[in-house]
From TrEMBL, chain A:
It comes from Actibacterium pelagium. CDD domains: TM_PBP2. The lineage of its organism: Bacteria, Pseudomonadati, Pseudomonadota, Alphaproteobacteria, Rhodobacterales. One of its GO terms (biological process) is transmembrane transport. InterPro entries: BPD_transp_1_N, MetI-like, MetI-like_sf. Keywords: Cell membrane, Membrane, Transmembrane, Transmembrane helix, Transport. It comes from the Bacteria. Its main location: membrane. The chain crosses the membrane at residues 12-30, 100-121, 133-155, 175-199, 247-271, 291-315. GO terms for cellular component: plasma membrane. This is ABC transporter permease. It is found in: Cell membrane. It is a multi-pass membrane protein.
Amino acid sequence: MLAFIIRRVGQSILVLLIVGLVAFSMFRFVGDPIDNMLGQERTIEDVERLRTQLGLDQPFPVQYFKFLEGAVQGNFGVSYRQGRPVAEILMERAPATLELAAVSGLLAIIAGIALGVFTAIRRNGFAAHTIMAASLVGVSLPTFLIGILLIYLFSVELGWLPSFGRGETVSIGDWWTTGFLTQSGIKALILPAITLGLYQMTLIMRLVRSEMLEVLRQDYIRFARARGLRDRVVNFRHALKNTMVPVVTVIGLQLGSIIAFAIITETVFQWPGVGLLFINAIQFVDIPVMAAYLMLISVMFVGINLIVDILYVFIDPRLRVDRKGGH
Amino acid sequence: MRTATRAILATTVAMLALPASAETLRWASAGDALTLDPHSQNEGQTHTIRHQMYDALIIRDVTGAFEPSLATDWGPKADDPNVWVFNLRQGVKFHNGNDFTAEDVVFSYNRAKTPTSDMKELINSVVEVRAVDDYTVEMVTDGPNPILPANLTDLFIMDKDWTEENNTVKVQDFEGGEITYATTNVNGTGAYKLVSREPDVKTVMVRNDDYWGRDQFPMAYSDIVHTPIQNAATRVAALLSGEINFLQDVPVQDLERVSSADGLVVKTAPQNRVIFFGMNQGADDLEADNVDGKNPLADVRVRRAMSMAINRDAIKQVVMRGQSQPAGMIAPPFVNGWTAAMDGESKTDLAAAKALMAEAGYGDGFSIRLDCPNDRYINDEGICQAAVGMLGQIGITVNLDAIPKAQHFPKITEGKTDFYMLGWGVPTYDSEYIFNFLVHGREDSIGTWNGTGFDNDELDAKIKSLASNTNLEQRNADIADIWRVVQDEQLYIPIHHQVLNWAMGDNVGIEVDPENQPMIKHATVN
């Protein structure tokens, strides 16, 4: 068991190192950060001085190694665009992204399960058909288009909700800011949360529906009905419970992508989170920010996968590789 | 009676002033200031935000003319052309209540000349700044510098005592990731005071009612909230929904939508930026073409033919939706040395262009790669696409390579492109600036943006002499001579002058500034 975990952790670290290496080898094609950092009056001497100072004159494996060396000590370098330590900027931006991700995740889970159950139980009803058809929109329309449509409808035409930003925020502790405590903060959260969560919501809904239909066909449900149990008990206590196993797995895996895919939603709504930071960093060739963000996201995905793998072992003994024999 | 009149007048003034006293300007633009340290980062949007809170000795008004700010008047010293004398405004106070004196000017200029400063290039001719008395400053230059004031309009004055007390004398070492007190705090003499700032999110400012120019400028807005919004569609939506009432960067495709909306107006004015193509005429052979052993662009007839093939009016109508001003020279119209005659020299004439190509021996044309940015100028990629079609009509097959600016500009400065698009703004409003960067042969600190390979020693000497020529008449004659060569050699293919579009609520009175730098103290509420 221990050997399995150690091997898994080792593989995860290897994946992280490779992601970093690939990222660093690509930064050279994004452009020359020096060009953005110095004004048009700069001299060739200035350019050379800065290039040496930033270590950009060195081959990328060396730059990568230096980055790793700093990252291990918790130092992600200095943003070329903002001139501040990257770790500090990421900490400052993280609450916005995490709050947005949490709200859209909850929205996706609650609405997704509720609608999934509804469409499974009333599978021939008009409402269920309408919802299923509408859910196709959520799956097939790109996020930025949904965001712009929502802005157009609710901000420009109706004027109910703000089109950009996070509203007023309140500081909690030293580094957390929340938009939950002000009216403008909550209003500002609605459209981005729907935009970000819509895809996951439709995904969960369709999954719940198909799993539910599968379960409802099974014998024990028929017997339960035959015993005269009420519909509510049959549907929710017996059927739904058994559909949840695959649904929970998918939700876990989608958690990471909600944070990672927040990039587009944040850009459309000018949401001051890490995704917007990353987009700005690409445009400015802000290598330290890009590197730190990509590493952070890969740590997150690798971490989630690692946990899931380890959990599987606990759940399913057949996966324990150190066991002799077996299948 | 007089008292009564005065009372009525006072009440009227108060009534006029009252509704304005609580007006908030909710202002958005694509970019944010990179820092608030006055001498770090010589960058447009950063200066724009600083201009609201800091004052320079001299600024420019919306016509590009000098406007006295912290200096009331200035001029070269009568008996010494190497010295400029500035008389300072009296009774000015910094936001913290400290008095503004000559000592602060000396301190600020010395700070701007330190190695970590990004403003040092602008005043590299200044060898000494000295206070003659509390309200007179002299600047000694390393030779006569007739256009020194033009370099000072973004050089902000800090309070010496405040800067020293807060241990922020050293200019923020931007690349070194230093956060200094001055990066996030402001103590200027400007019309607005800093309330709060979150980089890339929001900057809030409040009117400085003790401002020295409180009676001189309308200063109708009591509060300013500046928000950067990168996404063009979101910017426009925020304006249409009324969440912002002043937008600096309106995408051209949305101009009609915005101007037809109720309660919104779009104001337009030529920008201090000209867009053009550069051609590598210095090399013996080009890498990006299909002609071996020869450089077609080295032949002036080919360069002229290419210019004649470009239909600038079509680009204006189709690509720019009317929002450009076709150009015949690579100087914006307010720059010293610009003439209407030269700016009208670009003519479209396909027959003559084809004849010139045939005469130069390229009657069958050739093919070449055009390098173009796709995120720097207004519709930059669209302009290049249009040029591809137009040059195709005279037999030149153009392969377009449109890439982000971060990849495009190094190609020019490193000489890795043979045919490229570039835009140029002239902060000094003088042709010398253009010649120094775009016409002078490429050397270490001069000609850095001249990717044409053009190098004419005689012309270079003339360009260098401009810097210290105090005989302005002679200097202007030299400028005209240099332009004549640039035009006759068809060094560049001018396309157009960019036009700025600012959108605002119809009660917002802000005039478009050619530098794209609104000064909110000039704003009125209608």
